[in-house]
Design brief:
The protein is of the alpha/beta class. The protein contains 13 helices and 8 strands. It is 46% helix and 12% strand. It is globular. Its EC number is 4.3.3.7.
């Protein structure tokens, strides 16, 4: 069975990294445990509503607060949902230690189609050190590596030259690009990236401009509360016409701002609870539940987005 799973995973890895990939929250039950039923339902819903794939153990999933056993459980639930629908699964891995990250990718669930590996954080490695980190990690990984470039969390911005060096490493398939802006480095890299390197927009607020610059798709936390709308936005930028794509991006911008008004994923969990898609909005410390004003603002914004036909809030 392991061999079959590995064969299936390798088949999925050949699919291009495009479309909407949703980094799922980790729903908790009232006793604090992982709510497996709610997670399975949510994973199935986003895929059925148009997401190309899902991401397990991302920042939105509160991965830092999960035990090793809980992480395995989350990946298993997400992998099952993806297997049932023939969709790719990305698994978030990585620490600020190369040896530990290398071990994590070696033991990733064989059903994963790619690993999302964060740039080493906190230690403030040199850019050359980051390249060597990913050289070792990519060489050890049984599946393609997506570099998670998020300097406002890692304190390690990367230059255009470094991004290009990373793109050229064997087994590096692309990037989740989440720099908090559409800056000079972003525009220069998007104009010079190798044609076989995928770039997935990672900031909900900037997904429209990133798609306009040629991003292949996106990894968006808001994709689990407005899946059809975000999937439609990416499809519109890819297939045209452009004018409706611009209008849809503008319509989704207030939602992105509202969902991130407090530390992620507090507002998103509250919205999903109001939609009755999860049973509990709890987050784990040091995160705190979202305030009522932020939740109300997000629900009001979401209710105005009707073109995508997304699941609407049913309770406050």
């Amino acid at each position: 069975m392991v061999a079959d799973a590995q064969a299936d995973a390798m088949t999925i890895t050949r699919q291009p990294l495009t479309g909407l990939h949703v980094p799922l929250i980790t729903p908790f039950a009232v006793d604090g445990s992982v709510d497996v039923t709610a997670l399975a339902d949510l994973a199935g819903q986003v895929l059925d509503d148009g997401a190309s794939g899902i991401v397990a153990l991302g920042t939105t999933g509160e991965v830092a607060s999960l035990t090793t056993e809980e992480r395995r459980l989350v990946v298993d639930v997400c992998a099952t949902a993806c297997d049932e629908r023939g969709a790719p699964l990305m698994v978030g891995v990585g620490t600020n230690a190369t040896a530990v990250t290398r071990d994590e990718v070696r033991t990733v669930d064989p059903r994963a189609s790619a690993v999302l590996v964060v740039v080493p954080y906190y230690v403030r490695a040199s850019e050359d050190g980051v390249v060597e980190h990913f050289r070792e990690v990519a060489a050890a990984s049984p599946v393609p590596v997506l570099v998670y470039h998020v300097p406002y969390r890692t304190a390690r911005p990367l230059s255009v030259d470094t991004l290009r060096q990373l793109a050229e490493l064997p087994n590096v398939a692309g990037f989740k690009h989440a720099v908090g802006a559409v800056d000079d480095v972003t525009t220069a890299f998007m104009s010079r990236k190798p044609v076989d390197t995928a770039v997935l927009a990672g900031d909900d607020l900037h997904v429209g401009p990133m798609l306009a610059l040629g991003a292949d798709g996106a990894i968006l936390a808001g994709g689990q509360v407005a899946t059809r709308a975000y999937a439609g936005l990416i499809e519109a930028w890819r297939d045209g016409p452009i004018a409706p794509a611009r209008r849809q991006a503008a319509a989704l911008t207030p939602l992105a701002a509202a969902l991130f008004a407090e530390p992620n994923p507090a507002v998103i969990k509250a919205v999903l609870t109001a939609q009755r898609r999860i049973r509990c909005a709890d987050v784990r410390l040091p995160l705190l539940p979202a305030g009522a004003a932020a939740v109300d603002a997000a629900l009001d914004t979401l209710s105005s987005i009707s073109a995508g036909g997304d699941r609407t809030p049913t309770a406050r």
